[in-house]
């Protein structure tokens, strides 16, 4: 069964929203706006690493119009987009690994790399 573009948009938005929920709390800890709880941070980092694998499946033909901020540039520059999403998966895995150390000196740069991955695609492919 071919997925419906509206369903695909809803699906990938859900995955990104759940990622932002956890990444936002992690960011508060990294920035010292919230007490750092190593166990909770690591749990969230694992969740984000798994969630990062989900959205790609939702970027299907016909899903770059309607209730979405995703730009048609994604289809035109598919390899670049796919590369960026793969980097997100790699960087979130590295952050989940760093989180296990409980050492903010390792976590901070890994967190920054994930943030760069988010921003890189937003700058190029998001309204
Ligand atoms: C977040 C969030 C994003 C990224 C991005 C990083 O917390 O929701 O999309 O960080 O702003 O540049």
TrEMBL record:
Annotated Pfam families: Cytochrom_C_2 (PF01322)
Molecular function in Gene Ontology: electron transfer activity; heme binding; iron ion binding
InterPro entries in the cross-refs: Cyt_c/b562, Cyt_c_II, Cyt_c_prime, Cyt_c_prime_subgr
Residues reported in the UniProt entry to bind heme c: 118, 121-122
Gene Ontology CC: periplasmic space
GO terms (BP aspect): electron transport chain
Modifications made to the protein after synthesis: Binds 1 heme group per subunit.
Keywords assigned: Electron transport, Heme, Iron, Metal-binding, Signal, Transport
Protein name as it appears in the record: Cytochrome c
């Amino acid at each position: 069964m071919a997925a419906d573009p509206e369903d695909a948009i809803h699906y990938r938005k859900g995955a990104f929203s759940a990622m932002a929920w956890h990444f936002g709390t992690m960011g508060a800890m990294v920035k010292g706006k919230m007490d750092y709880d190593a166990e909770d941070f690591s749990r969230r980092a694992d969740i984000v690493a798994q969630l990062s694998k989900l959205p790609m499946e939702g970027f299907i033909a016909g899903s770059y119009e309607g209730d979405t901020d995703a730009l048609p540039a994604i289809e035109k520059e598919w390899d670049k987009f796919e590369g960026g999403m793969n980097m997100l998966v790699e960087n979130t895995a590295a952050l989940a690994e760093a989180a296990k150390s409980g050492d903010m000196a390792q976590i901070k740069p890994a967190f920054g790399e994930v943030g760069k991955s988010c921003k890189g695609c937003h700058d190029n492919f998001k309204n």
